[in-house]
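Thread: "does anyone have the structure for this chain?"

Original post by V.I.:
We have the sequence but no experimental structure in hand. Need at least a predicted one for the grant figures.
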Amino acid sequence: MSQKASLLSAIAGTNRGLLATEHDQTVILAAIAQLESLNPTPQPVQAAALLAGDWRLLYTTSRELLGINRIPVVQLGAIYQCIRTTDERVYNLAEIVGVPFLEGLVCVTAQYEPVSERRLTVKFERSIIGLQRLLGYQSPREMIHQLEAGKKFPPVDFGIPARDRQGWIDVTYLDSDLRINRGNEGSVFVLTKAV
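Reply from O.Q.:
Generated one for you, tokens below.
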């Protein structure tokens, strides 16, 4: 079995990390480290064609993201990180499911800047929280199109305060359909290219 297949097998039953036991996390982090050592793209930040696109989260250790699932009556749905290399923008979208007709969405927009061959500094700019129906949410791509067109999404569409705006990610593995990031808060993210 390839290192990539081993990692995907290890994360398969963890529901993006929500169900990962301590043992699972140890196995997954070891598989991630092994795959990172085989990174086929030594300068991932310069590989715009591979980096760009809509990526769906497969696994994370981020307490902030996984914490969304602790809100009563709702569950964390699909999570996307959409990268637009032409204008150096990142869109993070988390779908919230649970009560029928009250599905939610959390969206954070940011500008990024390459600072090394694998690091991007990220400046968060805007956060949108609301019901998918009221936002007219269809898909990540359509939501981003509306954001790029300058659409405002009342009632909860606000700028992010300067003190909370900056972070960074290291792209530690990148191929045509898999990406691994490590963030400034120590979190790991494994994402697959969305079709």
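V.I.: this helps a lot. The mean pLDDT is 91.
O.Q.: and The helical segments are 3-11, 22-36, 48-51, 63-67, 132-135, 140-148.
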